[in-house]
Every structure is written in C-alpha cells, then in structure tokens.
Amino acid sequence: RDLADMFGVSRAAVREALRSLSGKGIVSIRQGRGTSVNPVDEWNSLDPDVLMLMHGNEVFAQLIEVRQIIEPELAALATQNITPDELKGLSLASDLPEQDTIEEHVERDAAFHLQIAKASRNQVLLIVLTSISPLLRESRRRTFVVPGELAKARECHQAIYTAIESGNAEAAREEMAKHIRQVESALSKYSSKGVINS
Fold first, then answer.
1. Helix (H) / strand (E) containing 167
2. What DSSP element (H or E) covers 29?
3. Which of 47, 94, 101, 155: CA 20 to 30 A from 30?
C-alpha cells in the first residue's frame, strides 16, 4: 500500500513489479512478513536486467565480445543451411526503412539477426543468442539514435544478405564481423557524446 501511494500506481502494479524483482532474485517476498531486499550475491546474475544494473555500460563491451565470437559463425553456417523461403524472409528483414520509429528499427534488426541464427540450424547457438535478446535490444536502441548509424547498419545488412544468398561462408563471416565492429563504434559514439551517465 505504501509503495502504491508513493509511486501513484495501483497495488496490482506494485505486486507485479515485486514479483518481477523476486524472479530476478533481487527481493524475497514472505507471506505475512513483507518483502526484503536480498544481498547482491543472491541476485540472478544471468538475468540481463540484473547484469545492466550491476555492471552498467561495461556489459555492452562484453556483449560485443560475445557477438564477435558467435554471430560471424552463425552467418557462415546460414550460407550452408538456409532455405529459399528463409532467404526471402531474410531479404525483407534486411531493410531498415528511414521512416520507422526507433522501436520498429529494433524489431526489424532483431528479426534479421534471429533469422540468420535460425538458418544456421545450430540450436545451441540459437539458445545462446535468444537468451541475451534483452541486452541486444537495449544495445540496438542505443546505436540507432546515433546519427548516421542507421544507414551504416542497413548497408551492413545488405552485404551480409548478399554473402549468405551467394553461399559464400567466408564472406558472410567477414561481413557479419564488420557489422559487429560498426555496432561497437556506434555504442562508443553513444557513450562519448554523454548520452549515458557513466
């Protein structure tokens, strides 16, 4: 009741928020004894929200490292395993129309990379990629507000698509690596312009 009054929201909204925090290990809810904040070492450090809370912007540098390891190989595998129907879908997803909102860009970009992961036919790598999707989405939100980065991402997507369509695994690997470097540069620009508080 106190939290609902403090934030001007319903008690149902507070209960839902506390359930979410409980699922992340941040709080413990005990019937009849109230809610308490858990020690940091009990928080779910595998949860993307907890990672961002605990490590701040450093988590995005680590995310880039993970993407550099995984995504070029996913693109190379996709050249060998993608179906004609998947190629059509990938072609549609590769565009990032100028008139879209930031959230629409995030959705399109996420769909493009997810389709490549699915086309790789490696279920373990697909699970790894989807498990970090909240971090990837936040990374995309940050990069797409940097002037000029949307056009660069569109160009990278087209180059990746062309390499996959041609069945050239080495080119697909290299184009995806270039794209991840472009994302890394955009995140650096986002940080250096003081958009994020360090």
1. none
2. strand 27-30
3. 47
In contact, 79 and 164? CB cutoff 8 Å: yes
- What 3-state class would DSSP assign to 30? strand
Q: Is the pTM of this model over 0.85?
A: no
Q: 29: which strand partners?
A: 35
Reduce the DSSP state of residue 70 to 3 states and report it: helix
Query: How many whole angstroms separate alpha carbon 82 and alpha carbon 9?
Result: 48
Cα atoms found within 13 Å of the Cα of residue 170, Cβ hemisphere only: 0
Determine the residue type at 13.
A
Give the tens place of pLDDT for each residue, 102-154.
999 999 999 999 999 999 999 999 999 998 888 899 899 999 999 999 999 99
Average pLDDT, the chain: 90
Give the 3-state secondary structure percentages of the chain, helix then strand then coil, rounded to 5: 75, 5, 25
